[in-house]
Amino acid sequence: MATITLTPEGVAGDYNHYRTQALASTPDRAISILTTDAVKFVRTLYSNSQDGDLGENILIDGIHSRAIKVGERYRFGEIAVVQITEPIEPCANLCKLPYINDPTITQPRQRLERCKHFINKLDSYDGLRGWYAKVIQPGDVKVGDLLQLA
Predict the structure, then answer these.
(1) Listed residue (34, 86, 20) closest to 64, CA to CA
(2) Please, what is the end-to-end C-alpha distance for the chain in angstroms?
(3) pTM (two decimals)
(4) I want to staple 82 with a disulfide (CB 3.0 to 4.6 A). Which of 32, 75, 133, 146 is the partner?
């Protein structure tokens, strides 16, 4: 069964260049969380999208992205606890996804419009792009772990 370890720095073994370099490894963005309703929404736009395309560390099911609020704490399984710090803002890096930056589209303007459309859709409401969280209590998270308010 797949397991990740949450530390105050983020997921053990995961490196986020932007957070590390531009944000001086801020613990407020240690992990990124996405909900399955958001993944399903992206798949209505691009059916070939994959889990992980939006850079999420944790994908959760059973709670809608709109239900998550800044400041809430969640426990994964028995030990790990995170606190939601902010919604993730869609950024231009998403335009590098192959189904957004489609190589069959030869006109730069069309590629740009496709990118802007995707970012605007993901910016429809807070949480659709996901949530940043800091790690309050380090621990392992396994696929299928129960998620509960802490």
Answers:
(1) 34
(2) 24
(3) 0.90
(4) 133
Three-state SS string over the chain comes to CCEEEEECCEECCCCCHHHHHHCCCCHHHCEEEEEHHHHHHHHHHCCCCCCCCCCCCEEECCCCHHHCCCCCEEEECCCEEEEEEEECCCCHHHHHCCCCCCCCCCCHHHHHHHHHHHHHHHCCCCCCCCEEEEEEECEEEECCCCEEEC
| Per-residue tokens: 20 | 């590390």
- Are residues 141 and 82 in contact, defined by beta-carbon separation less than 8 angstroms? no
Query: Residue 134 forms beta bridges with which residues?
Result: 83
Q: Does 16 score more than 90 pLDDT?
A: no
Q: Which residue has the tokens 């209505």?
A: 44
1 falls in which pLDDT band (50, 70, 90)? Answer: low
Q: How many CB atoms lie within 10 A of CB 87?
A: 19
